C-alpha cells in the first residue's frame, strides 16, 4: 500500500476507468488462475481442527503513486508497469486503456520482492525482500507528456544491489525492515535492520560497505543510558522488529559526545518485539556521519504490567512536534504515544546527579489505545472460533497530505486512522499545565476515528 505522491487532478476521474485498464484486467485474470489453495493461503484458518500453519507470509506492498502515474511491480517480468492516471497533456480525457510503460530491470533481483519504497528525492525505488535489497534508478523523462524516455514502451533501468556480499555470505540472516534515510539534500542512503539485531546504513555510492553500523545487542553498558532495573533485552532473546525516523531536531552535544556545538540530527526510534522503544540520533550531514548514544528503553506512562503487549510489530513517527509515535501489535492494538522530555522525578535523574554527560531520556505518554477489527465478527452473542485468535503483522503508512492521519495495511485489509485531538494536545502543551499525566484526561474528550477501508478476511462459510 502506498499513497500517490503529488496532485492527480481531473477530479479523480481515473477511479472510474482504471479497473478496465489492461494491466488490471491481467492482474484479475492472474488471481482467477490461482489454485484454491494459493488463493486461500493468506487467510487460512487457525482453528484447532485445522493442521498447523507456517508463519505468516509478509504482506506485500508492491504499488506506489508518483505524480499522475501508478507504479505496479511485476514479479514475473522483474519490471514496473507504469499506468498514467491522466490523459495526454493532462486534461480530463482518459488515456488509452491499453497503454502503459514497462520499466525493466537490467540486473533483476534474485530474491522475492515484498515491498517497494520510493526515495525522498523520487529518483530511486528500493526493491525490498527478506533476503536482499536493490535500488532501481528511475530513468529520465522528456517529451510533450513528460514520459520516461519520451514514451518508449519498454525502458531499461539500472539497479544497484545493496549489501549483496553480506546477504550472500550470511545465508541465515534476513532483512527485517528497511527505509530510506529521510534527507532530500544528501546522496541517497538506505537503512537496513537485519535479524542479527544490527542496523546498517548504506550509501548508494558505496552499496557494499555500510557507512554506519548500530549494534542493538551486546552493547557496552557505557554506550547506553539505562533506566533503573532495566531487563537486558539481548539476554532475553528479544530483538528489534522495526524503526522509524522523526523530523530533524537540534540535539545536545552530549548525545554525540561533541565538545564544541550541538548537532542537527534525525531521531531514530527503534521498536523491540517486547514493546520497548529505544532512541538514537543520526546525522550524515558531515562525512563520515554521527550516531548518538543509544537511549532507552523509553519509559511509558501510565505503566502497564505487560508493557503494552509482547507482539509489537511496527512503529511510525508522525511528522509533528512533539513527535507522536504509533506502535502496532500483531493482535491489532494501536498505541498513540506522545514523546515528551523526561521528568525530573524519573529514575534517570539519579544518573545525572553523578554523570554530567548524562541526558534526560524522553518519555512516552500513551495517549490512547485503539483495537482494530482485523476480521469481521458475528452478531452479538455468537461465538466465532475462526476470528477469536486471529492475528497478523501490521504495516503503518504515513498519509502524504495529512500529518495527523495514517493508514494500516495487513493480511486482513486496510484501516485508516485520524488523530482529531492533535490541536488540543498542542494547546495543552502550550499552556502552563505542569502535570503531564493529565494528558490522559484529554483522550476522554475527543478520540481518534478509525475507518475500515477494506476487508479481505470475510466471515467463513458455515
TrEMBL record:
UniProt record, GO biological process: mRNA transport; protein transport; ribosomal large subunit export from nucleus; ribosomal small subunit export from nucleus
Native organism: Mus musculus
Coiled coil (residue ranges): none
Annotated protein name in UniProt: Nuclear pore complex protein Nup88
Keywords: mRNA transport, Nuclear pore complex, Nucleus, Protein transport, Translocation, Transport
Any one GO molecular function term: structural constituent of nuclear pore
Cellular component GO terms, alphabetical: nuclear pore
Main subcellular localisation: nucleus
Subcellular locations according to the entry: Nucleus, Nuclear pore complex
